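Structure tokens please, single chain.
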Amino acid sequence: MKAAFLPDRGVVKVHGEDARNFLNGLVTTDATKLAPGLGRFGALLTPQGKIIVDFLITEAPAGHGGGFLIDCPRALAQTLVDKLGFYKLRAKVTVENLSDSLGVMAAWDGEPAMRPDLAFLDPRNAALGWRILAPEALVQKVADLIGADLIEDATYDALRIAVGVPRGGLDFTYGDAFPHETNMDRLHGVDFDKGCYVGQEVVSRMHHRGSVRTRTVKVVWDDLAPEPGTPMLAGDKPVGTAGSTAGRNGLALIRTDRVADALGAGQKLTAGGLGLRLADPDSVRSTAKQTVA
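Here you go.
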């Protein structure tokens, strides 16, 4: 088994008498289904349905003070605290940024010999294994406890890319992407059966009308890859944006209709003058046929 500390991740805690209902009325996942040892994927959106912060969330057991622990981008942890505070009003809820005292580990490629209290399976993709919330100073101790070799976080990032899970700030821009564009609907990050939450009307409309024309897809580079954010072209026509890479594997945010047209016309895809191909071109062709103009 392998494990890595993820220095780009932080932890926010939401606790208090009204915490569960408070969160459930705001985020894309169903907080009523959370329990200790169970994690869910979700996001806080703008009223226009765009992602402010995406995260993994679990319920803390009573021995750790209860409440809910949110594993989110560390750079956005305080933003999340402030946004949740804005919505608090009279709710009996406390929101804290614990990122200086509690960090995030990933563990994969096996089962832990012993399961720590603040551990849960990553709900986005089974290959991503476990998330474990622990202080950075105890990372080696936790790795030894679960029977994992502690390695660099770049190896985990390569795994994330290989299974097609986007990372905000590299594969999409926070405040400018809808959940469907980052595949949250395919990664169990949006519960379409729960009640209202911020941005729900827009997300639900996109889902039921099948009007999603921008998606994150896996790509394979011919050789080198450009910097994330480099425009992707079919001929001289913009069709998307390059995202994160590991070796020749990468992710890209593309207009599925434009890329499908380019593939049909036999046009080569490039970004920054570097060639690439889609890992699964058939999925883009079928997605493009389902969308509505």
